[in-house]
Amino acid sequence: MPVILWQIWGFVSPGLYRHERRYALPFILSAIALFIMGAWIAYWTLPMALKWLADVGGNNITQRTRPRSTTNSSRT
Question: How far apart are CA 15 and CA 21, in angstroms?
Answer without folding.
Answer: 10
